[in-house]
């Protein structure tokens, strides 16, 4: 059966895949099997190992796998190349975008531009492609390269429209380069007529600076220009005011909103509840939550998480567990962030046994993320319980949750503390092979132990491995 044809059928049919033996296999099962192979096979034999599975992937399965391995750029890229060779298969635009994001994250900019050029040949490039490139450059503080990406869009037969312009401003503002964004805005304001999104981006940028007077100035300019603030603008202003310690003023902004034109969202209330919580104003946090419910806005997991955080800050764990029960009664499922807020509080308070108990209970109702596992691994490393730390590590791998750079660092440091250089080296090598460069602190600590053991050969080997992860020059 042609895999491409599955995209045009019902969701039920598209959830099935065929192995080379003709056996029908569920997409979820395919994703799990391939992920397991990718996490257990050395890079030199990965393609052979994937071939031996006899599985063919659909665009849906490929996207899922690329998402799982988004923090392991080189490993994801090898899978991307392998899947592209399959008969009747073509990468989706989303798969390309995920791959562009992953390669840029590990500063493999030549690979990133190779992917852009591949999309160009297939005529699948769009504005979002360049918005991703601009975001990744800006995040790496490569401001000139971000602007360059915007400037070469027409060379790639893409129009520099308002969406692209907003993408550039957003990339700069989110990376704390709002002054450059404002400068570009002033120079091109006649070329691109700003909309509410443009102004909201700049307001958010000045809030991140932080420069509240300038954020207010841009807000007034927006209103004076006849551009009506929308819910994103109000959400941004509320967030800025809260971070500036003006939560009461932020609440006033919410209450002044014209409900017939722009109704507050659960996100806005989650920011208010969170801020009251961090300021130890628990009563106001609860009152704001209740006000939201009275307004007819259904609480979502984000608002409940803010309330959980407020109760944790106040040390009222009974109320935390009461909120979890209320979530269940309202069919709101806790997520990994719910779990992380509670665990972080318990660990900081030294309640490690209770934290482990919560972890074991929470994994039955929500899937932990890399941060959850990292916290638990770090906790057990600090308790010198390396056997349990390793069990948590292997559970994470078994569940298909990909370790972050911080997860690797925490376990490697724990192993170094125990003098287990052999296992620490294995993990460091695995980390490098997945495209992650260990921090100077992590590598330096292991290096000192290896020097004491006279293992200069291992240090040289690991250095050579790391030298392969060089930053590629800007290339189009």
The first-to-last residue Cα distance is 38 Å
What is the overall shape?
Answer: globular
Number of strands: 2
Helix content: 55-70%
Which consecutive residue ranges, at least 5 long each, have pLDDT under 50? 1-18, 20-24, 471-476
Give the helix/strand layout.
Elements: H1 11-14, E1 16-18, E2 24-26, H2 27-40, H3 46-52, H4 59-68, H5 73-84, H6 93-105, H7 109-121, H8 127-139, H9 143-151, H10 162-174, H11 178-188, H12 196-208, H13 212-224, H14 231-243, H15 247-256, H16 266-278, H17 282-294, H18 301-313, H19 317-329, H20 336-348, H21 352-362, H22 370-382, H23 386-398, H24 405-417, H25 421-433, H26 440-452, H27 456-467
Describe the overall structure.
With 476 residues, the protein is an all-alpha fold. Helix content is 67%, strand content 1%. It contains 27 helices and 2 strands. It has helices at 11-14, 27-40, 46-52, 59-68, 73-84, 93-105, 109-121, 127-139, 143-151, 162-174, 178-188, 196-208, 212-224, 231-243, 247-256, 266-278, 282-294, 301-313, 317-329, 336-348, 352-362, 370-382, 386-398, 405-417, 421-433, 440-452, 456-467; strands at residues 16-18, 24-26. The protein has a two-stranded antiparallel ribbon. Helix 13 packs antiparallel against helix 14 and helix 17 packs antiparallel against helix 18. The chain is globular. It starts with 10 loop residues before the first helix and ends in a 9-residue tail after the last helix. Residues 1-18, 20-24 and 471-476 have low confidence and may be disordered.
